Amino acid sequence: MDLLVSPVPQLHTMNPSLGEGALGTMHDAALGFADEKLVYVGPAADAPSAKKTVDGSGCVGLPGLVDCHTHSLFAGSRADEFRRRLAGESYTSILEAGGGILSTVSATRLADDDLLAGLLGQRLDSFLRSGVTTVEVKSGYGLSVAQEIRLCRILAEGDWPVTVWPTFLGAHAIPKEFRSNREAYVTAVVEEMIPALSGIARAVDVYCDRGAFSLDETRRILKAGMAMGMDGRVHAEQVEHTGVAAMAAQMGCLSADHLEQLDDVGIQAMADSDCVAVLLPGAQLYLNDPAPPARALAEAGVPLAVATDFNPGSSPVRELLSCATLACLRMGLTVEEALLGITKNAALALGCRDRGWLGDGSVADFALFELPPGENESSALVQYLGGHKTRCVVRNGRLVWSSEG
Ligand code: NIG
Ligand code: FE
Asked: Which of 35, 204, 235, 289 sits in a 20 to 30 Å window from 19, CA-based?
């Protein structure tokens, strides 16, 4: 065996067939890796020896975390917008005046491929250091045929420190050039961008909201993408209630994300489908939005995922475990729901069954965290905002990051 992590006093496998409860918890466990695979999960006392061992004493083990909603590919800064919003301007009024997302579009269009890839690589390194091994990244700051194809290519073709899951978000905002002819932009998304990106982007996403795309436009774009084999996802019910979450659920989309303005009809439609609710507490915090109805969603049986929504405007937050904390504090999740939300249910929102849990058939992605001094319950990982320290990260069976260097 190449690598052994042992002992791990608390290991949440997220695999109920391996351990206790919904989190599949094992005590005094060990994990063994060989040939890029997970080959042993079991009692530390019975673990075979390996060429290299990482000591997990005092730590909590989780599957490599999955961030299922980010906008990590961009250039430029929104420092000025942050000040304007602190002074009382709204996110939507800044966007409608040509700022917000559109200011990031201007900066991203001007950046060459090397600059963009360099920025993305640095951001993904910081995700990895916080235990995240899979990151969904959306395009959406190009907003022209050539630029959106360029962004999706960078995502799909790079050799990144984490697994990147590319999503096409050409329908993020109406670009300035199409302000007076939005129909022509939607047609370009449907007839030019989507056909060029099938096989490159795994999913198609639409921001359906005031100041962005209408329900009819969203339906047309999702239909076109899903007909080309992309999974459907939506930015839903964030600023204004539109009914898009119910529509997305009925169309068979994998997820509806945000959901601050979701109503009972939407909750029921999601419960009647396999659509995952992706909660984004970073955006809720930065935009001072109300909480989505997370308890009602959970009680209706809708799987809850939690993501950073990392972007330079509404959620400049890269710490996924901190988002788990915020989802508990500001949305009413339990610690267990929050941990499932950044692992197994996040993978479900990506339509990806082999990650977010550990066991036979899972990828060999693993993260080990030190508890804050004096704590020994794994819930302290979620209780302390930003208080976790990553001990090591294993990706595809290889030790890719360790606090010991
Ligand atoms: O998920 N709501 C729309 N899109 C992003 C924000 C992107 C941006 O502000 O640059 C979101 O919050
Ligand atoms: Fe988003």
From this structure: 35
